[in-house]
Fold:
Amino acid sequence: MGGGGQLTEPAEQVNGRAGGVYTWQEVQSHCSRSDQWLVIDRKVYNITQWAKRHPGGIRVISHYAGEDATEAFTAFHPDLKCVQKFLKPLLIGELAATEPSQDRNKSATIIQDFHTLRAKVESEGLFRARPSFFCFHLGHILLLEALAWLIIWVWGTSWTLTLLSAFLLATSQLQAGWLQHDFGHLSVFKKSSWNHVLHKFTIGHLKGASANWWNHRHYQHHAKPNVFSKDPDVNMLHLFVIGKTQPVEASGGCFLFLDMNNKFTFSLLVGPPLLIPIYFHIQIMRSMISRHDWVDLACSLSHYLRYLCCSVPLYGLLGSMLLISFVRVLESHCFVWVTQMNHLPMNIDHEKHQDWLSMQLHATCNIKQSPFNDWFSGHLNFQIEHHLFPTMPRHNYHLVAPQVRALCDKHGIPYQVKTMWQGFADVFRSLKNSGDLWLDAYLHK
Structure:
């Protein structure tokens, strides 16, 4: 039983078995880059060749090689009937009748209870979006940007008005980031194609980024949150160490260009403002060019062309570059703190092969609800509910939250809710603790 054959070959040609029956041990042995199987609803699929063509990218599906991917498959695909047609050519058999439905040490009770909860919220219509909500959100983004340009076009480019305009533009960009996030998760329209088109417009034309780059990166984060080597958001070893495990493991070598005391200051003062304008921008451009994503590149360039048409007559080319850099720095600060206060203080470790509910709850926490918190964070203050139900429209998170909390209480899974200021403070504390752990391990190695 080697690597994957061609997608069009029947199961007996690929594996030497007609309608093969497999154990979990056999499935788990197929987890290399050149040989990948996974299980969905007890059916065994050979995804070795398909992974290269997977719309979400090769990495996100490969993270489940050798594992049960049922819960992730259900969470990421709003139209399961549509994607089933892609699975049929990949089917090679099923689990033996003596094998449990869940792999490794996952709890069958937790999995079943979460499945019941999902069916319940689906029947309650909580996966149906309100178009007026997203139309209003798009309208207020466009209004903020129009107001920013109107101020300096009508009243001039003084320092005070330029700063005011920059703050309005940064706010517009931040809110556009949350809206593209909605489209990227297919949570607005029933038809995935409509979500994809609006996603390219929002992240490309409104923000100057790439939809494909975002999909390939962000879905990995959702598939394996806070898991080293699988979640790109915690693979920052070249800059700083995070969590409790990585600092100790990394203490064996001088792989960093700053000592850890200076890195704590670096991660707080330099990391947040430069993530979007430097780190993400380089990644995005490299991704679009290397993958030949010419549609994404055209959308991105249209954003910068529109910006330059508005700013160059007022500030000149150099002034326009400085202004957009300042706007990106402001946006990046807000983005980093909003997204990391839900994840960075939580458990960050190697793969533990947990069930969907346990994995997401160990990696996420919520921030208390308020009209400002909902708006400022794009409803990602309900990070737990978003991670459990990524295709659910964000305006319904507060409705499902009590049911999620009740399920967590039933199974003794911590459900953390903090104030926004507590979330910010925990980011400081988490980075400081990681730095201290690294230094202690390095000095006593």
